[in-house]
Amino acid sequence: MAGVKTRHKSGGKLTELVGAGKEFIKSEVPTLRAVIQRGLLLKEKLFIENETAKTEIPVHMIAKKLAPLVMNQWLKANPKFCPPVTISEKSLIQKIEKWWKKAENVAWGRVKQEEKRKVMDMLDKLFDITTCTHSIKLCNVPESLCNDQAKCKFGAHIKCDCPKDRKIPALELSWLAIQRAKTGESSRMMMKGVDKKETDKQMKAAKRKLEEESAQLKRNKKMEDEKNEQLIEQEKLDVLEDDTRNQDESYVLPNLTDLAVKEQLVNALLKEKLGDKAYLVKQY
Predict the structure, then answer these.
(1) How confident is the model at residue 1 (pLDDT cuts 50, 70, 90)?
(2) Residue 136 pairs with which residues in a beta bridge?
(3) What is the DSSP annotation of 97-163?
(4) Whole-angstrom distance, CA of residue 38 vs CA of residue 161
(5) Cα separation, 149 vs 168, whole angstroms
């Protein structure tokens, strides 16, 4: 029937550009082409579940479901490949949307040749989600300045001034260098899966760091509370001292050299002590 959409027809121009939807290769982190192909597979699923036209499924919805799958592929390589070593999930969603739309524009012939060339070159390159963009040099490259390739633990070197929490795990430098250099989804250095011993070591280190940070926060809070208490006590003392000073300044001592004043003081004192009998006291 002419009006019925087949799977091939419903894929549209984007499928013609990148290929049909498919799963990620389990042992590889994906290229841009692989990300879009996995997104097309998700789009097929959403199309069936929602019983709606594919044109009505927004790119944002696909990117939102696709981002965790991309992040999971990186976590398989090393548990440290998570934010902030990698970009956040929100940023990843935005990145997927941006490149998806670029690929769609190429597929529909909406861009100039220069833009088309950039997108076509990117399709089979690593869809890199690491925050560190510094170049990694394998030990066998002169620019790496490796002193002893045979004894080097990491097989690669990097000049990186990123914050410590964003740095690429040293054990993954050579692997990531190869991933960044590959053309196509497969590479000559596939993921070996999670190293349990190394993972346990990293988890313990992360837990220890978290405990140290928590303890430091508690110490800082205690010091801050003590400081605030001292400030409050000092303010109380300052207020009391000011009140005392004001009272002292408001009282003016009489001139006791004045005989009349002395007599008034004596009479007032006698009146206070003797009451009506005060007149009986003779003054000398």
Answers:
(1) very low
(2) 158
(3) HHHHHHHHHHHTT-S-HHHHHHHHHHHTSB---BS----EEETTSGGG--S-TTT-SSSEEE---S-
(4) 34
(5) 20
